[in-house]
Amino acid sequence: MPNTIGDPSNIGGNVAYWRKKRGKNQRVLAGLASMSQPYLSQIERGIRSVNNRGTLAALANALEVSIADLTGQPGDPNEPSRAAAAAHVPAIREALIRREFGELEEPRHDVRQLMVAGGRYDFATVAPQLPNMLGGLRGGDLVQVAHVGVYTLKHLGYADLAREAARLAVTEARELGDPAWIGIAEFIRILAMPPEMPGAPTRLAQRVADELQPHIGDPRVRQAYGMLHLHAGLRAAVDRRGDTAHDHLLEAGQAARSLGEPEDDLGLARFAFGPTNVGFWEVAIELELGEPQRAVEASDRVAPGRIPLANRQAPYFADVGTALVQAGRDHEAIAAFLRSEAAGPQWFRLRPTVRDTIGSVVRRTKRNAVTKQMRHAANAVGLQELVKD
Predict the structure, then answer these.
(1) Quick one: pLDDT at residue 301?
(2) Any idea where the domains of the chain sit in the sequence?
(3) Whole-structure pTM over 0.85, yes or no?
(4) Does domain 1-72 have CATH number 1.10.260.40?
(5) How far apart, in Å, do the first and last CA atoms of the chain sit?
(6) pLDDT at residue 79, rounded to an integer
């Protein structure tokens, strides 16, 4: 298998590039990032993947670069689904600027249809509609569309516009004065925050959850309240604060059990908040805390088919795959990654961490033992060169 050190097409290669550019050896960088030198060496050689967001943030901070510098986001501009969606980004930017100066458009598209397309991670369908909808909608409809806009823009690599869309949602929700929409809008703002920001997202989520507490008798508010605690738990896990992460997960779980599984078009803003969604986030949180076995055990308690949304299932199966890789169960991991790819192919192709994890599995597998499923997974993330005969 090829050596990846210095190869900018993968995270390990980018880590090696920036380490050398900063004049650091592996021992020094490993110490600054709180990891062992052998683990860092394996990352740079592409036989181990960066196993969580916290590790990625630690490496970026130690190298004084952004996480995007290490992941290579936004990725290949010629990738068809990304290119088709990105072509509409200038119009989205213009619509947000015009709205800031009071120039609203007449909305021409159906909000629910956009939400359904967003739930499929169908960026090429969503992006052409966003300029008009972000430029003209009001109230809860605008908040929902802003959520789709935020994760679309983030995945395309336009974090600045994602934050602008989130700011618009918060402003609108605050003017509306509805606690449920305020909670959802603030969740969206946290989603748009840079991953390198330690502490602040968790504190904001807790502050807004406290603000919603007097209204928690309203099931709509309780859904927003639970989602805020889930995001606070994940961000606390990124900051490596396990007790805090589990406290937030427990609070979200209690809210979910009181509500049951979502009905009525998957609940408020189609967030699908309920016990199954909490299970999805539990897997992500345990994985982030460096507990892959606990993540796998949590996944055994989840019935993912209860939430038929690509934007829930694709990340969930990717997290399960990553946890299985870390647990030394590579073949099961590849099966989970293929379920992720089937659920959300556009999302899957744009995830550099997924690409690196699959690459690490293939690189440490003897060539004659590479399975058909491994070849499929490698091809799906653009690693054809690793599985050539």
Answers:
(1) 96
(2) 1-72, 314-389
(3) yes
(4) yes
(5) 11
(6) 66
